[in-house]
Amino acid sequence: MGMNEKTFDRIEKKYLIDAAQKKKILALVEKNMKKSQYHKSEIFNIYFDTDNYDLIIKSIENPDFKEKFRARFYGGYDKVFLEIKTKLKGGETKVGYKRRFLITHNDYLKFVDKQKTAFELASEKIETGNDLQIAREVDYLVDYFDLKPKILVYYNRTSYIDDNNLRITFDENLCFRDTDLSFRKKVRDKHYFNDKKCIIMEVKAGGVMPLWLVNVLSEAKAYPVRFSKIGKVYERLKKETKNVQ
Protein backbone atom coordinates (compact mmCIF):
# COMPACT_ATOMS: atom_id res chain seq x y z
CA MET A 1 0.00 0.00 0.00
CA GLY A 2 1.69 3.11 -1.19
CA MET A 3 1.89 6.64 0.09
CA ASN A 4 -0.66 7.81 -2.47
CA GLU A 5 -3.47 5.41 -1.57
CA LYS A 6 -6.54 7.19 -0.26
CA THR A 7 -9.00 4.62 1.09
CA PHE A 8 -8.36 1.10 2.31
CA ASP A 9 -9.24 -1.41 5.02
CA ARG A 10 -7.12 -4.15 6.52
CA ILE A 11 -6.39 -6.33 9.52
CA GLU A 12 -3.53 -4.91 11.58
CA LYS A 13 -1.29 -6.53 14.18
CA LYS A 14 1.53 -4.84 16.08
CA TYR A 15 4.63 -6.31 17.68
CA LEU A 16 7.25 -4.70 19.93
CA ILE A 17 10.58 -6.25 19.01
CA ASP A 18 14.29 -5.72 19.58
CA ALA A 19 17.13 -5.56 17.04
CA ALA A 20 17.87 -9.31 17.23
CA GLN A 21 14.24 -10.23 16.57
CA LYS A 22 14.09 -7.75 13.70
CA LYS A 23 17.17 -9.32 12.10
CA LYS A 24 15.63 -12.79 12.22
CA ILE A 25 12.26 -11.65 10.87
CA LEU A 26 13.79 -9.38 8.23
CA ALA A 27 15.76 -12.26 6.70
CA LEU A 28 12.46 -13.96 5.77
CA VAL A 29 10.66 -10.74 4.89
CA GLU A 30 13.32 -9.79 2.34
CA LYS A 31 13.19 -13.31 0.90
CA ASN A 32 9.39 -13.36 0.47
CA MET A 33 8.48 -9.70 -0.05
CA LYS A 34 9.73 -6.68 -1.95
CA LYS A 35 10.61 -3.17 -0.90
CA SER A 36 7.68 -0.79 -1.18
CA GLN A 37 7.83 2.26 -3.44
CA TYR A 38 8.66 4.43 -0.43
CA HIS A 39 10.86 1.83 1.25
CA LYS A 40 12.47 4.19 3.76
CA SER A 41 10.59 7.23 4.97
CA GLU A 42 10.34 9.65 7.85
CA ILE A 43 6.73 10.09 8.93
CA PHE A 44 5.37 13.02 10.92
CA ASN A 45 1.84 12.79 12.37
CA ILE A 46 0.05 15.70 14.02
CA TYR A 47 -2.94 14.36 15.94
CA PHE A 48 -5.97 16.58 16.39
CA ASP A 49 -8.11 16.30 19.49
CA THR A 50 -10.30 18.22 21.90
CA ASP A 51 -8.79 20.26 24.73
CA ASN A 52 -9.57 17.29 27.00
CA TYR A 53 -8.10 14.73 24.58
CA ASP A 54 -11.45 12.95 24.29
CA LEU A 55 -10.63 11.00 21.10
CA ILE A 56 -7.33 9.67 22.43
CA ILE A 57 -8.81 8.75 25.82
CA LYS A 58 -11.66 6.89 24.13
CA SER A 59 -9.14 5.06 21.94
CA ILE A 60 -7.13 3.96 24.98
CA GLU A 61 -10.30 2.46 26.49
CA ASN A 62 -10.34 0.04 23.50
CA PRO A 63 -14.00 0.38 22.49
CA ASP A 64 -15.60 -1.60 19.66
CA PHE A 65 -15.36 1.52 17.50
CA LYS A 66 -12.76 4.27 17.68
CA GLU A 67 -11.78 7.15 15.46
CA LYS A 68 -8.75 9.43 15.13
CA PHE A 69 -8.00 12.42 12.97
CA ARG A 70 -4.47 13.40 12.03
CA ALA A 71 -2.38 15.22 9.48
CA ARG A 72 0.42 13.08 8.05
CA PHE A 73 3.55 14.44 6.40
CA TYR A 74 6.27 12.40 4.68
CA GLY A 75 9.71 13.95 5.02
CA GLY A 76 11.06 15.22 1.72
CA TYR A 77 7.68 15.63 0.00
CA ASP A 78 5.39 18.66 -0.08
CA LYS A 79 2.43 16.44 0.69
CA VAL A 80 0.15 16.46 3.72
CA PHE A 81 -2.62 13.91 4.10
CA LEU A 82 -5.67 14.84 6.15
CA GLU A 83 -6.55 11.43 7.47
CA ILE A 84 -9.45 9.86 9.36
CA LYS A 85 -8.49 6.52 10.87
CA THR A 86 -11.12 4.24 12.36
CA LYS A 87 -10.98 0.78 13.90
CA LEU A 88 -13.95 -1.53 14.20
CA LYS A 89 -13.89 -4.69 16.26
CA GLY A 90 -14.95 -7.80 14.39
CA GLY A 91 -14.81 -10.86 16.64
CA GLU A 92 -11.28 -11.23 18.01
CA THR A 93 -9.78 -8.91 15.41
CA LYS A 94 -9.92 -5.20 14.79
CA VAL A 95 -10.22 -4.04 11.20
CA GLY A 96 -8.68 -0.68 10.40
CA TYR A 97 -10.16 1.77 7.91
CA LYS A 98 -8.27 4.78 6.66
CA ARG A 99 -9.71 7.60 4.55
CA ARG A 100 -7.53 10.49 3.51
CA PHE A 101 -6.97 13.14 0.90
CA LEU A 102 -3.93 15.07 -0.16
CA ILE A 103 -3.10 18.77 0.18
CA THR A 104 0.08 20.85 0.09
CA HIS A 105 1.89 22.02 3.20
CA ASN A 106 0.76 25.59 2.52
CA ASP A 107 -2.86 24.40 2.28
CA TYR A 108 -2.46 22.60 5.59
CA LEU A 109 -1.44 25.86 7.27
CA LYS A 110 -4.58 27.51 5.83
CA PHE A 111 -6.67 24.62 7.17
CA VAL A 112 -5.18 24.86 10.68
CA ASP A 113 -5.60 28.64 10.75
CA LYS A 114 -9.24 28.17 9.64
CA GLN A 115 -8.68 30.27 6.53
CA LYS A 116 -10.09 27.40 4.46
CA THR A 117 -12.10 24.29 5.18
CA ALA A 118 -11.04 20.82 4.07
CA PHE A 119 -13.92 20.83 1.58
CA GLU A 120 -12.75 24.10 0.05
CA LEU A 121 -9.22 22.77 -0.29
CA ALA A 122 -10.40 19.50 -1.82
CA SER A 123 -12.64 21.40 -4.25
CA GLU A 124 -9.67 23.36 -5.57
CA LYS A 125 -7.75 20.25 -6.57
CA ILE A 126 -9.85 17.13 -6.82
CA GLU A 127 -7.62 14.08 -7.28
CA THR A 128 -10.41 11.49 -7.00
CA GLY A 129 -14.17 11.70 -6.77
CA ASN A 130 -13.88 10.39 -3.22
CA ASP A 131 -11.85 13.38 -1.99
CA LEU A 132 -14.84 15.69 -1.56
CA GLN A 133 -16.70 13.14 0.58
CA ILE A 134 -13.65 12.56 2.79
CA ALA A 135 -13.16 16.32 3.09
CA ARG A 136 -16.79 16.68 4.24
CA GLU A 137 -16.15 14.04 6.91
CA VAL A 138 -13.01 15.88 8.05
CA ASP A 139 -14.88 19.19 8.37
CA TYR A 140 -17.71 17.51 10.25
CA LEU A 141 -15.32 15.87 12.74
CA VAL A 142 -13.31 19.06 13.30
CA ASP A 143 -16.44 21.18 13.80
CA TYR A 144 -18.41 18.67 15.89
CA PHE A 145 -15.60 17.97 18.36
CA ASP A 146 -13.81 21.35 18.00
CA LEU A 147 -10.58 19.54 17.15
CA LYS A 148 -7.19 21.25 17.27
CA PRO A 149 -3.58 20.08 16.67
CA LYS A 150 -2.47 18.58 19.99
CA ILE A 151 0.46 16.15 19.67
CA LEU A 152 3.22 15.50 17.12
CA VAL A 153 4.55 11.94 16.76
CA TYR A 154 7.25 11.03 14.26
CA TYR A 155 9.47 8.05 13.42
CA ASN A 156 11.55 6.34 10.73
CA ARG A 157 9.73 3.65 8.75
CA THR A 158 10.99 0.79 6.59
CA SER A 159 8.25 -0.97 4.61
CA TYR A 160 7.76 -4.10 2.54
CA ILE A 161 4.86 -5.35 0.41
CA ASP A 162 3.89 -8.44 -1.55
CA ASP A 163 1.40 -9.19 -4.32
CA ASN A 164 -1.27 -10.48 -1.91
CA ASN A 165 -2.05 -7.24 -0.08
CA LEU A 166 0.38 -7.98 2.75
CA ARG A 167 2.39 -5.07 4.14
CA ILE A 168 5.01 -5.14 6.89
CA THR A 169 6.55 -2.03 8.40
CA PHE A 170 9.26 -1.41 10.98
CA ASP A 171 9.00 1.90 12.86
CA GLU A 172 12.02 3.13 14.86
CA ASN A 173 13.23 6.26 16.69
CA LEU A 174 9.75 7.21 17.93
CA CYS A 175 9.74 10.85 19.09
CA PHE A 176 7.06 13.31 20.17
CA ARG A 177 6.18 16.76 21.51
CA ASP A 178 2.99 18.63 22.40
CA THR A 179 4.09 22.22 21.73
CA ASP A 180 5.00 24.13 18.54
CA LEU A 181 3.30 21.55 16.34
CA SER A 182 5.04 21.90 12.99
CA PHE A 183 6.30 19.06 10.79
CA ARG A 184 9.86 19.64 11.95
CA LYS A 185 12.19 18.12 14.49
CA LYS A 186 13.17 20.14 17.53
CA VAL A 187 16.20 19.68 19.77
CA ARG A 188 14.05 19.06 22.85
CA ASP A 189 11.78 16.46 21.28
CA LYS A 190 11.42 13.41 23.49
CA HIS A 191 12.24 9.82 22.57
CA TYR A 192 9.52 7.39 23.59
CA PHE A 193 11.57 4.22 24.11
CA ASN A 194 14.44 3.75 26.54
CA ASP A 195 14.71 -0.05 26.47
CA LYS A 196 15.75 -2.74 23.98
CA LYS A 197 12.28 -3.50 22.59
CA CYS A 198 12.16 -0.25 20.70
CA ILE A 199 11.00 -1.31 17.22
CA ILE A 200 7.32 -1.32 16.34
CA MET A 201 6.59 -3.91 13.68
CA GLU A 202 3.17 -3.78 12.03
CA VAL A 203 1.65 -6.50 9.89
CA LYS A 204 -1.21 -5.27 7.71
CA ALA A 205 -3.05 -7.89 5.73
CA GLY A 206 -6.17 -8.08 3.63
CA GLY A 207 -6.73 -11.62 4.94
CA VAL A 208 -4.79 -14.32 6.79
CA MET A 209 -1.02 -14.15 7.27
CA PRO A 210 1.13 -16.48 5.11
CA LEU A 211 2.59 -19.56 6.79
CA TRP A 212 6.22 -18.41 6.41
CA LEU A 213 5.40 -15.28 8.42
CA VAL A 214 3.51 -17.18 11.11
CA ASN A 215 6.50 -19.51 11.48
CA VAL A 216 9.19 -16.81 11.68
CA LEU A 217 7.17 -14.79 14.21
CA SER A 218 6.90 -17.92 16.35
CA GLU A 219 10.63 -18.68 16.01
CA ALA A 220 11.52 -15.07 16.91
CA LYS A 221 9.13 -15.20 19.89
CA ALA A 222 7.36 -12.10 18.57
CA TYR A 223 3.81 -11.82 19.87
CA PRO A 224 1.04 -9.31 19.05
CA VAL A 225 0.58 -6.47 21.49
CA ARG A 226 -1.84 -3.58 21.88
CA PHE A 227 0.22 -0.51 21.07
CA SER A 228 -1.19 2.79 19.88
CA LYS A 229 1.60 5.29 19.24
CA ILE A 230 -0.58 8.28 20.08
CA GLY A 231 -2.19 6.47 23.03
CA LYS A 232 1.18 5.60 24.59
CA VAL A 233 2.58 9.08 23.96
CA TYR A 234 -0.49 10.66 25.57
CA GLU A 235 -0.08 8.43 28.64
CA ARG A 236 3.58 9.46 28.88
CA LEU A 237 2.70 13.17 28.62
CA LYS A 238 -0.03 12.81 31.24
CA LYS A 239 2.37 11.03 33.61
CA GLU A 240 5.03 13.72 33.12
CA THR A 241 2.47 16.48 33.81
CA LYS A 242 1.47 14.78 37.07
CA ASN A 243 5.11 14.51 38.15
CA VAL A 244 5.64 18.24 37.55
CA GLN A 245 2.61 19.24 39.64
Please give a structural write-up.
- The protein has 245 residues and is an alpha+beta fold.
- It is built from seven helices and ten strands.
- Helix 1 packs antiparallel against helix 6, helix 2 crosses helix 7 (229-244) and helix 4 (118-124) packs antiparallel against helix 5.
Helix content: 25-40%
Q: Please give the number of β-strands.
A: 10
Mean pLDDT metric: 90
Nearest-angstrom radius of gyration? 18 Å
Overall 3D form: globular
How do the strands of the widest beta sheet line up side by side? 1-5-4-3-2-6-7-9
Give the distance, in angstroms, between the N- and C-terminal Cα atoms: 44 Å
Question: For the report, how would you describe the main beta sheet?
Answer: 8 strands, antiparallel, barrel
**What amount of the residues lies in strands?**
35-45%
- Assembly annotation: single chain
Order of helices and strands: EHEHEEEHHHEEEEHEH
Summarize the model shown.
The protein has 245 residues and is α+β, with helices and mostly antiparallel strands. It contains seven helices and ten strands. Helix content is 31%, strand content 39%.
Defining traits:
eight-stranded antiparallel beta barrel, 31% helix, 245 residues
Write the layout of secondary structure elements.
Layout: E1 7-17, H1 19-32, E2 34-49, H2 54-60, E3 65-74, E4 80-90, E5 93-103, H3 105-112, H4 118-124, H5 131-145, E6 148-161, E7 166-177, E8 190-191, E9 199-205, H6 211-219, E10 224-225, H7 229-244
